Amino acid sequence: MTNSAGRRQPGRAVASSVIPAVMAILAGVIVVGGAAWALGSGGPDRDAPVVINNTAVPPLPTLDPRRIADGETLYAQSCAACHGAELRGAPNWKQRLPGGALPPPPHDDTGHTWHHPDSLLLSIVTSGGDPAYNGVMPGFGATLSPDQITAVLDFIKSRWSRDHREFQWWMTVTTQADQP
Ligand code: HEC
Description:
By secondary structure, the protein is mostly helical. The protein has helices spanning 2-40, 65-78, 80-83, 118-127, 146-157, 162-178, and strands at 50-52, 55-57. The protein has two domains: 2-45; 65-178, Cytochrome c-like domain (Cytochrome Bc1 Complex, Chain D, domain 2, Orthogonal Bundle).
């Protein structure tokens, strides 16, 4: 009896000195982690290189407001009928239609346009959907110039969160670097 009581005492003493130390370490982790998070999510350090998978690419380019405005007009004329004025796409855009075609996907953060590098986006908008599965996305190579197409893409990019823009920029740079 006395033994077990005697053993508990030092146990408590250890616990009471260890707990504040653990709390102090945790507080330190939270402060340092918070600072890193603020930098990573583009707080004060907007001109830093974008680093994903340990691969750094140059800082995210700033979009030109005039090109965004031009792109918005072109988007309303050529794309909104299918992809929606608010870029939300069709409600069941992931479900193929009976003929195999996909409904128009969203172009905002909820879609996957931001997963693709510029080279792929340009080729989809220029040449249209994949005929292999009856894609109904028309090609705009004959009606829009390459400059107009990139303006539409700049408008679409202007609607993405910074994280998604950085990811798409990183994809664009690293995909180009991979090409022979
Ligand atoms: C007639 C309807 C229609 C119009 C108009 C249209 N699209 Fe599409 N778009 C689609 C459909 C449907 C898809 C799904 C893939 C497919 O069918 O090829 C798609 C796919 C895309 C994709 C691929 C997205 C992804 O996540 O893979 C991009 C980018 C795109 N469209 C951009 C545009 C732009 C920019 C315009 C205007 C210049 C436009 N689309 C006009 C129907 C349309």
